[in-house]
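User: Hey, my collaborator sent me this sequence without any context and asked if I could get a structure. I don't really work with proteins. Can you help?
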Amino acid sequence: MQENILFITLMLLSSVAYFVGRQRASKTVQGQLRNLHSLPSYYGFFAAIWSGLPAILLVAVWVIFEPSIITQMVVADLPEEIIGINQEHANLVVNDIHNLVQGNLTANEPSIHIQAAVDQYRSLEVTSHILLTIISLILAFVLGLAAVRKIHPDLRARNAVEHLIKGLLILCASIAILSTLGIVLSVLFESIRFFQQVSVDDFLFGLTWSPQTAMREDQVGSSGAFGAIPLFTGTLLISFIAMMVAVPIGLMSAVYLSEYASNKVRGIAKPLLEVLAGIPTVVYGFFAALTVAPLLRGMGTNLGLDVASESALAAGLVMGIMIIPLVSSLSDDVINAVPQSMRDGAYGLGATKSETIRKVIFPAALPGIVGGILLAVSRALGETMIVVMAAGLAANLTANPLEAVTTVTVQIVTLLTGDQEFDSAKTLAAFALGLVMFVITLLLNVVALRIVRKYREQYE
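Assistant: No problem. I've predicted the 3D structure and written it out in structure-token form, which is a compact way to encode the shape of the chain:
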């Protein structure tokens, strides 16, 4: 039985256990529900959880470890001359076996031993699926039956169910925290390996970015230049241009839609504005490269300015347009969340609408507005496609928005594209760039929290 069908079957058995447990709880008190410790639904959930959760966990663990175990069993039966003397050749053999099992073609015609290994793999896989189906169904039935038989009026079913839900919530929170910690540690460890090859001063304060390294010492460019200042400058320049477009337009749009627009206008304008958020970034990149960049170049020629075909201005303008719905939507939701009583109080004191917005609504909505702007800044710092197509890949150290620049995220993608060795400084530089971006984002959040706390205390 396939995993998805088995999962649906287990869910159906769990549903049956729910109804059976609920009916048994009612029968134990002969319909006098007040004699039960918990509501009948809790007894049903108690039976359903015992019937479904352990079996589903078993299926999940089985599916995760099944391929590696079967692979080890198959490889152990292969002759030594097929496996080879090194790990690289063994990995190629295993990849060929997996490709043939999945029905894909391989570079060479499989040998008799490889074909026998493929047949053995498929046989073990079928046997494993049969065992998984039998064991999981028996486990679900036995535990569900035991849970139903355990139901009696004094059973604290509500406490058991709520403790389980609490445990699941703690598990989800722990997964989120551990995932963040794992990302940070992985980036940090690889960055330390990079800084063992390139000094921190050269990386943070170097003015030349040329990470290309040669395979041999006698080749030209055998030692790359890893000065990241041009990347940080380009990132901040494009993000600044984008925020100069997105924040004023998005914030003013939110004020108009929430305070001035009628319900009819709001019902039409807000969905149309949010359509921009659904456009893929690659489409924005095409728009920047094929429309905005030539337009800026033509306007610059008419004004006597030298505008590059790929410029920071083109990327920043289009990126700002892309971010407008994010700022507008979040700010609009925050402004609408301000209680109407605060507006009415300001109007009762004789304040005008604009005074109410500036003196009452903005201070009350400031934390949410700052949070929305921070999300927009993070989106601008992490954008890649628009920069690649509109600003280029040239790591130029310049503050001129009319010239071509590149950003940190673009270089990270460039460094990690293709077959790379993680022992070279060129590849490890991507992790160092990611670590610096993480620190910059963290500092932005700290500064924003201090600003919000200051203005909130002043308002309160």
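In plain terms: The chain is about 75% helix and 0% strand. You can pass these tokens on to your collaborator as they are.
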